[in-house]
Amino acid sequence: MKLWAGRFSKEVDKKTNDFNSSISFDARMFAEDIDGSIAHAKMLAKQNIISADDGEKIVAGLEKIKAEIASGELVVDPNAEDIHTFIEGELTKRIGSAGKRLHTARSRNDQVALDIRMYLKKECDALEKTLKNLVKVLAESARKYHDTVMPGYTHLQRAQPITFGHHLLAYAEMFLRDISRLEDAKERMDVCPIGSCALAGTTYNLDREFEAKLLGFREPCANSLDGVSDRDFCIELASVLSILMMHLSRLSEEIILWCSWEFKFVELDDAFSTGSSIMPQKKNPDIAELVRGKAGRVYGDLMTLLAFMKGLPLAYNKDMQEDKEAIFDAFDTVNVCLSAFIPMIETMSVIDENMKKAAAGGFINATDCADYLVSKGLPFRDAYKATGELVAVCIEQGKTLETLEIEEYKKICDLFEDDVFEKTDLRKCVSERKTYGGPAPENVIEQAKRVLEKIR
Ligand code: ARG
Fold it and tell me: Does 130 contact ligand 1 (Cβ within 6 A)?
């Protein structure tokens, strides 16, 4: 039976009912829907809009329904129009006329706006915890590899020496920003829409402040039209999640590269990689690839939300029912990605000889060689040119700056002495890069500590 059956003389067409129904995806908000209704009943009773007795019956009935759905004893009817309809119907079936009083001074429009906010606030808290765990794994790993030298890249060309710990901490910074964006979004969505009713508030003497506090919100929303039709928080969260997925995808991409035989900087644990059905030698970084792929899916959710909201007149329109599948999918996708990604990173082993080999082969100490000449009094531009010529000689002779004879150095610039080899030693190059924010091992230790403090 429909809540709105009074005005209609026929049952709704079955296919239309299925099309119209949101139960398949809003049933997951049953606990929030019930908690919202319990607060509403308490407020109605406190304001003498319903009797204390009816209020108590409603609360007890709803508690029971919540426990039964949670345990599986009560199955949500897949033919119901939505979770709000189902729960109110079930309550009325059980407690009779008191149940019929619950929807006084309320509409499904403010009810659904409330449920999504409550549901998403919980999702934000859970995700924040998970992200902190990811940051912790990265910072601890950074500490472990604080002096593991690797090439840093620009244009995916070997550029200057860094430490693997420093590279990992760059990602820790990104995820820290994701956490702070999540907290910001949560703060802004912390207003309670219930009491907006269908769109225009109500003539009943509600205590919206009381109900908002009971439900853990900072305050009631200030405009009833906005209360029922605002979905900014879904869009904002989807955009936070999109940025997060972009970060995960970049790290995934690097892991995929690092796992290739061309790099072989890391090896994934067998438990977090997969094989090929035909090529026996293969060990594939499928998890990282899937995470990279799923970033596109979360961007799609963001686009869905932005697109269906853009032309909607105030206040509620049924188009808004599309919000839930998109934002739930975005959270589900991020959660499932992180559940595989974090242990993959945690168990990944690092092949430091290969990092070192790559660092030694790419002239990544050329800037340091130029800086050496600068320390001997040459202007940087001249030092840069001389070092460029040196690199050309090395390439011609199949050598590196480390293996080229000092005589060859002197042919290009007589300021070169034997101590150039010490100054351009990769370890030295990296340990001297101790400007704040730089890759020196001692900095990495400091920064890892700072990061770990931030997530405490
Ligand atoms: N299932 C609807 C949604 O998700 C609930 C609100 C329905 N309100 C209405 N007047 N039809 O948006």
Answer: no
Query: Considering the entire predicted model, what is its pTM?
Result: 0.94
155 in catalytic set: yes
* CA 428/CA 66 separation, integer angstroms: 64
Tell me the three state secondary structure of residue 274: strand
Q: Using one digit for the tens of pLDDT, what is the confidence trace for 208-247?
A: 999 999 999 999 999 999 999 999 999 999 999 999 999 9
Specify the length of the chain in residues.
Answer: 456
Q: Report the alpha-carbon distance of residue 98 to residue 106 in Å, rounded.
A: 15
Architecture of the domain whose range is 358-454:
Orthogonal Bundle (1.10)
Ligand 1 in reach of 321 Cβ (< 6 A): yes
Strands 266-267 and 157-163: unpaired
What are the pLDDT digits (tens) for 310-332?
999 999 999 999 999 999 999 99
Tell which CATH architecture fits domain 116-133+157-204+229-351: Up-down Bundle (1.20)
Which residue among 321, 324, 327 has the greatest number of ligand 1 atoms within 8 angstroms of its CB, and so is best to mutate?
A: 321
